[in-house]
Write a structure and sequence with these properties.
Blueprint lengths: L1 H28 L1 H21 L8 E7 L4 H12 L3 E7 L2 H9 L5 E5 L3 H6 L7 E4 L4 H26 L5 H8 L16 H32 L15 H30 L8 H22 L6 H8 L3 H7 L11 H7 L3 H14 L8 H58 L4
Parallel strand pairs: 1-2, 1-3
Antiparallel strand pairs: 3-4
Helix pairs in contact: 1-9, 2-8, 2-9, 6-7, 8-9, 8-10, 8-11, 8-14, 9-10, 9-15, 10-14, 10-15, 14-15
Length: 428
């Protein structure tokens, strides 16, 4: 009995290694699979990261309309232009002229000083500086508005001090700023957009390229099969677990290398913030890659032709990025979309990687994401086993049906031939 069990285990391992070697050979020889498994993960992150290499929006062009022509307005413009985020690019004589520049996208905002600006200040009244911003691009709006706000706050304090009657600098400080605040960045101290978005994009690239590769491999397997079947009829393809594990081992080995490249090398190349530790990264990547692999293998039953997987995966990339919660707060999502997001490994992979990479978190800090990925791994593994079992049963039934049909044709031909022979014999 022990020898029989040992033989089964040994044969299972041999079959699994055979399937792994065959899948690896197919991956290397298939140009489409090779592109999405190797070339796209290598090159696409470089292109995407290069776009955000500047990190912070700087020197946003702004039009100035100064109808006041006062010392105070000129001081405001000088401090405003000195900021690194904006640039006083044009000086206009009217607000309509400045708005025309905004419409032509020559500038992204307007700072307007009315004629009575200085007069109101000298009389101790409230004066207004109008800031017009192009809201079609939020980053430029943020740069213009925050810079104008900072300059206004600084000048406001100086004006209040000059009008105060306190005797000491400390009295002036308390009078002008009874409630002060201090801005202390905790994470993403550079304020860079790349540091905020790139970690999520890198993980999503891992998922989408892996799904594309698995889908293309499934399409190739069907196209190379005479009867368009996903699982071939072979003595090595007789066990569900050995088939699933053999195929998944190939995908995991390839993308373990790609994951190390995307999560460690790419941020280093472009000097993005990375506080990740090797143990935490490995602990996150193992369940993430396994969940994506089994998810892709379960979906591979839907792939009839190689082109179908492109439509299925490519057009879902941007929605999946939104569902992760890095570009739009998760709390503001409808409950239906929150529930839908739980189906995809990228949701938890992106959130987990963002915490360990940009926030210096550990596996304990991402326990919800870590647990969710392992749950997805188990669920999608058994889903894959169920799908492959169905495919094997279907393939065997079709094979038996074809065999019976061939036997029937052979018997009919034999009977016909026999009848023909018997009909000729009496005539002779």
């Amino acid at each position: 009995m022990e020898n029989g069990l040992f033989t089964k285990i040994s044969n299972g391992i041999k079959d699994m290694c055979y399937i792994w070697a065959k899948e690896m050979r197919s991956t290397i020889t298939d140009e489409g699979v090779l592109i999405f498994f190797i070339l796209v993960p290598l090159l696409y992150p470089l292109l995407y990261s290069w776009i955000y290499n500047n990190e912070v929006v700087k020197k946003v062009p702004v039009a100035i309309v100064d109808l006041s022509h006062s010392q105070t307005s000129r001081e405001f413009i000088r401090d405003f232009d000195a900021a690194s985020e904006v640039k006083a690019a044009y000086y206009c004589n009217s607000i309509d002229e400045a708005k025309d520049l905004v419409a032509k996208q020559v500038v992204h905002g307007v700072v307007y000083f009315p004629k009575n600006f200085a007069h109101k200040l000298y009389r101790g009244e409230q004066a207004h500086v109008s800031v017009y911003c192009d809201m079609s691009l939020m980053l430029t709006y943020k740069a213009i508005y925050q810079t104008a706000q900072a300059v206004a706050s600084k000048m406001n304090s100086a004006i209040q001090i000059s009008h105060s009657i306190d005797f000491t600098n400390r009295d002036d400080e308390i009078t002008t700023k009874p409630l002060d605040y201090e801005e202390v960045p905790i994470f993403n101290t550079t304020g860079g957009y790349g540091n905020a978005i790139i970690p999520g994009v890198l993980i999503l690239i891992l998922q989408q390229t892996l799904l594309l590769g698995i889908g293309l491999a499934a399409g190739t397997a069907r196209e190379n099969n005479r009867y368009q079947e996903l699982i071939p009829i072979s003595k090595h393809y007789v066990g569900i677990f050995r088939i699933v594990l053999g195929k998944s081992m190939c995908y995991f080995m390839v993308f373990a290398v790609m994951a190390a490249y995307l999560t460690l090398c790419v941020p280093h190349f472009f000097h993005f913030t990375s506080m990740v530790h090797a143990i935490d990264l490995i602990g996150l990547m193992i369940p993430f890659l396994l969940a994506v692999i089994f998810f892709g293998m379960a979906l591979s039953c839907l792939v009839r032709y190689r082109e179908n997987v492109m439509l299925l995966v490519v057009f879902t990339s941007i929605p999946l990025l939104f569902l992760t919660g890095i570009s739009w707060p998760e709390t503001n999502m409808p409950d239906l979309w929150k529930a839908f997001a739980q189906l995809f490994p990228s949701t938890f992979g992106v959130r987990g990687f963002l915490r360990i990479s940009s926030m210096g978190g550990t596996l304990d800090d991402i326990e919800p994401e870590f647990t969710a990925l392992w749950i997805q791994t188990v669920v999608y593994f058994f889903a894959t086993c169920a799908v492959y079992r169905y495919q094997i049963i279907k393939t065997r039934k079709q094979a038996y049906a074809r065999m019976d049909m061939l036997k029937a044709k052979a018997a009919a031909a034999k009977s016909k031939k026999q009848n023909k022979t018997e009909g000729i014999a009496p005539q002779s």
